[in-house]
From TrEMBL:
Gene name, Swiss-Prot/TrEMBL: Lbr
Keyword Membrane: yes
Species per Swiss-Prot/TrEMBL record: Uria aalge
Protein name (Swiss-Prot/TrEMBL): Delta(14)-sterol reductase LBR
GO cellular component: endoplasmic reticulum membrane; nuclear inner membrane
Domain spans labelled Tudor: 4-62
Location in or out of the cell: Cytoplasm; Endoplasmic reticulum membrane; Nucleus inner membrane
BP GO terms, sorted: cholesterol biosynthetic process
EC number: 1.3.1.70
Listed Basic residues bias regions: 76-95
């Protein structure tokens, strides 16, 4: 195996692909299989180069010093020659050279004029031909020789111009300039082509094109299966498949209208000029988008609206009675939104496309999201859907399930299990809305495009699958004792503490690593200028926020008892999701941080579960 010539972190000169230009780059990693160096340019562009395309900076500086050292001698020799008594003065030489140039120009002009006369003779119309001058036909010989119009004098024939251009004796300075401009344009187009190719998504997730095509149908089918199973008296996996309802019963125009009203009500709350405006992380072109942080205000206004409906005795358990129709309406709306997002992304500039959804394959880009931050004016569609309709809707659905349980079972108070589920999940949602700014540093905002995956996840999966425990308890009430409730509450508090404190450390460090409050945190510096935390929660495991998520998910399911596995679907799904995300994060961080990430993994060996995984 050939030895490496350049070390990681070394600053060298790298040749830009398709050109002869060298730029200052920093070596980030080396592939022993392909023998390619991954280098990073000053603008943040990362490319893979051969060793032959990389040179040391000293070689460029040496050439420059040689040229500069030789120039003084030439200048001194020219000065000595100019002082020679036998040679004319500089000004005289300059004037004589100018006169020679003027003579040469006169000769060339004379030659061109003679060629022009020759061309006029060669291409003079025949006297026997019939020509039209000023719109009148002339056929006689006398008229052909005597009538030379003003147009013929002032406007040379097109064929004459062509011959003049072909036989021009002028210096080709203009042609050289055109050739230089053309070559520069060609190089620029080549660079743009390379940049466009490098921005393409090369590594496909979720099983590539086939996997994403299957998921487009599998995800809605999973949601409907879970809801149908919860409606059964015995929601055991042995009772698969559940009885399917009639197709016409799955759609109701009134339900779809209520869903649209909910969606646009949240959009109205989003547009209210309340809350602070903050900047997001820099995009690939260096630009920062602005976001209005008013999610918690939207939650308070929603709570006031729901309270008003209950005051006027609106039957909120209408959600429970038409739960399947609401899920179908949300799925249809998310599909329509995904189609709109993909169509508009086809006109988006290259720098506005998502790094993970720019593969060039229709199905894959449609699923993962082609455009990174689709906006209608200042209305950010992805950021709005991430927290508002689905997350706040999850709390409203839980409340509707609580009221439905009281009505169906003739209870004056909801069950302790239902209270725990509602309380735990309400805390989670309020925490997300209160710390809304932290979402701007997540992969969903910075990396993933807005396509079917996020649209369906935000509008269907979150409100209708995350509320599965409350929906299950309506038809399958479970009684738990106060000591058990206290133990489950402690477990949820532990998970929440790990989740919140880990995320707070990460977000604070990303925003301002030089904050004196974070002086106790130690980190490993990277070539990107960012640091990898090796103390606090991030020195305990690599993804402590995922550990807190899983602990909370378990606490949400335990109030449903152990009679069926269905309420624990959320825990199983959450573990699978976070393991997938962790693997994606590992791959992304290894590419981004290189050797620094390997050092971090050696320092923090456990990924999610300490001493296990």
């Amino acid at each position: 195996m050939p030895n490496r010539r350049f070390a990681d972190g070394e600053v060298v000169m790298g040749r830009w692909p398709g050109s002869v230009l060298y730029y200052e780059v920093q070596v980030t990693s080396y592939d022993d299989v392909s023998h390619l160096y991954t280098v990073k340019y000053k603008d943040g562009t990362e490319l893979e180069l051969k060793e032959s395309d990389i040179r040391l900076q000293s070689s460029f500086k040496h050439r420059k010093s040689q040229s500069s050292s030789s120039s003084p001698s030439r200048r001194s020799s020219s000065r000595s020659r100019s002082r020679s008594p036998g040679r004319p003065a500089k000004g005289r030489r300059r004037s004589s050279s100018q006169s020679r140039e003027r003579k040469d120009d006169k000769k060339k002009t004379t030659q061109e004029s003679s060629i022009a006369l020759l061309v006029l003779v060669l291409f003079k119309p025949s006297e026997n031909n019939t020509r039209r001058y000023n719109g009148e036909p002339e056929s006689t010989e006398r008229n052909d020789t005597s009538r030379v119009t003003l147009e013929q004098k002032l406007k040379p024939d097109l064929e004459t111009e062509r011959v003049l251009e072909q036989y021009s004796l002028r210096p080709r300075k203009e042609e050289k300039k055109k050739e230089e401009i053309y070559s520069e344009k060609k190089i620029f187009e080549t660079i743009k082509t390379i940049e466009k190719a490098s921005s393409k998504t090369k590594e496909l997730e979720f099983g590539g094109r086939i996997g994403t095509f299957v998921l487009i149908f599998f995800l809605p089918a999973t949601v409907f299966y879970l809801l149908l199973m919860c409606k059964q008296d015995d929601p055991s996996l042995m009772n698969f498949p559940p009885p399917l309802p009639a197709l016409e019963s799955l759609w109701e125009a009134r339900v779809f209208g209520v869903f649209l009203l909910w969606f646009f009500l949240q959009a109205l709350f989003y547009l209210l000029p309340v809350g602070k405006v903050v900047e997001g992380l820099p995009l690939s072109n260096g630009r920062k988008l602005h976001y209005r942080i008013n999610g918690f205000y939207a939650f308070v206004l929603t709570a006031a609206a729901i309270g008003a409906l209950l005051y006027f005795e609106f039957e909120l358990h209408y959600l429970y009675d038409h739960f399947m129709q609401f899920a179908v309406s949300a799925a249809a709306f998310s599909m329509a939104l995904s189609i709109y997002l993909y169509i508009r992304s086809l006109k988006a500039p290259e720098e506005e496309l998502a790094p993970g959804g720019n593969s060039g394959y229709f199905v894959y880009d449609f699923f993962t999201g082609h455009e990174l931050n689709p906006r209608i004016g200042s209305f950010d569609l992805k950021y709005f859907c991430e927290l508002r309709p689905g997350l706040i809707g999850w709390v409203v659905i839980n409340l509707a399930m609580l009221l439905a349980e009281m009505k169906i079972h003739n209870q004056s108070m909801p069950s302790l299990s239902m209270i725990l589920v509602n309380s735990f999940q309400l805390l989670y949602v309020v925490d997300a809305l209160w710390n809304e700014e932290a979402i701007l540093t997540t992969m969903d905002i910075t990396h993933d495009g807005f396509g079917f995956m996020l649209a369906f996840g935000d509008l269907v999966w979150v409100p209708f699958v995350y509320s599965l425990q409350a929906f299950y308890l309506v038809g399958h009430p479970t009684a738990i004792s106060w000591p058990v409730a206290a133990a489950i509450t402690i477990l949820n508090c532990i998970g929440y503490y790990v989740f919140r404190s880990a995320n707070s450390q990460k977000n604070s460090f990303r925003r301002n690593p030089a904050d004196p409050k974070l002086a106790y945190l130690k980190f490993i510096p990277t070539a990107t200028g960012k640091g990898l935390l090796v103390t606090g929660w991030w020195g305990f495991v690599r993804h402590p926020n995922y550990l807190g998520d899983i602990i909370m998910a378990l606490a949400w399911s335990l109030p449903c008892g152990f009679n069926h596995i269905l309420p624990y679907f959320y825990v199983i799904y959450f573990i699978c999701l976070l393991v997938h995300r962790e693997a994606r994060d590992e791959h992304h961080c290894k590419q981004k941080y290189g050797l620094a990430w390997e050092r971090y993994c050696q320092r923090v060996p456990y990924r999610i579960f300490p001493y296990i995984y």
